[in-house]
Amino acid sequence: MAKVQTLAYVDIQHDAPAVFDDVEQGVVLREDFWVSGYKSGTTSVHGKVRVEAADGGGVDIEPRDGVRIERLSKSNFVISVPSLGINSLSVRFPRQVINPPYTKKTNVSPELHISSIDYSDKSEQLVIGGTDGYCVVVSPSDTKNVVELKGHVGDVQHVQWFPSGEVVLTASSDLSVRVFSSKTGANPRTLKGHTRAVTATAILGVGRQVLSASKDGTVRLWTVGEAKEAKKWRVDAGRAVDGLVVVGDEAGLQALDVIAEDEQVILAATPDGSISAFTLSSSSLTVPIFVSPPPVPSNLIAIAYSPSTGLIATGHANGITAIRHLSALRPVEEGHEAPLPTLIKRNEAPIYSLAFVDRDGRLDLLVGTGSGLPSRLALDIDANGTITASTKEEYAGWEAVSVESWAVGADSVFCAGGEGGVRRY
């Protein structure tokens, strides 16, 4: 296995901004909050920061026990932990917390747990899917105006905007895929055929056809207008499909050694970490063109693709994020060694969610784990294709609960999970 890049990281008391508010408003004269720094194989640092009312107004900040902190604004801080090599790390609290309305159906119904979110820059709205069929559309600028998308009777596992910004695609543990109007909540199409929970979707082009993946081990192609299954492909017997990526860009297809006009390649990720590749033009139940072996000996939970760089990232149960170029998925010729993946780890928490952010020539990776601590990693790629990761930003304000989904907007990133709210950074 390739050597793992171990990254140091920072955790901060989730309500630290409230400490500043209490002191500034005269509720208390002084109050402490904690800041901790961690790096695998190194002694952790657990510091305190005292916030005290200053003469003449404002507050004085006194960090101690090995941490340094600077407050840039109400929600943005810069933290250093010199003994761990953490220098001027940006730590951001959410600029907005969206708590969508949720009422339990019965006294024994679970609290809202968000499984998936997506944001449309076109409509400037979020779609949120979660517990027990819960699915809503909400605008961050007007959170009281909510459109309910009713129809699912199982947990909504995946949500996605069509390119128009007016229609939503959803997938559920109730075995169905549904198409909703985001304006009226109408459900004109329901796609049925899977025999186990539907885990992921992909929209092809403008949305006349869509793909769905399921724990029944299949990926299915649907013609939306007719609400009919057009084709299906199956991974190895006994395996579920937990993640789905579609490669349709020219460079990506060349990297996968697929040379055909108007072709697309479906990458179906299974829990053991293997990735099966199917061409969209192939017939139903055609065997994959290749199956890429797991990059690490740990279950795969999340997958993301960056078309601009050809990189694919997978998140695993042992806390490792593996990054490879698409070309590394292909079978290796006899006598040659497979390229080693870039392996990144911050702690032991499983990686639940990943999303690439590609802006202004810089590539970042958003990472959410089973114990909170969402972060933004900067990925530097040298002339030889070697990838070096560093922590660019910590996204604070979370309890130790799962971060299960990301959505990327033009000027924001959103994340959501076990706390039942959406945080905007």
Automatic annotation (TrEMBL):
WD repeats lie at residues 149-190, 191-232. SMART domains: WD40. Transmembrane segments: none annotated. Belongs to the WD repeat PAAF1/RPN14 family. This is Proteasomal ATPase-associated factor 1. Keywords: Proteasome, Repeat, WD repeat. PROSITE patterns: WD_REPEATS_2, WD_REPEATS_REGION. The keyword Ligase does not apply. It holds the Pfam family WD40. It comes from Vanrija pseudolonga. GO terms for cellular component: proteasome complex.
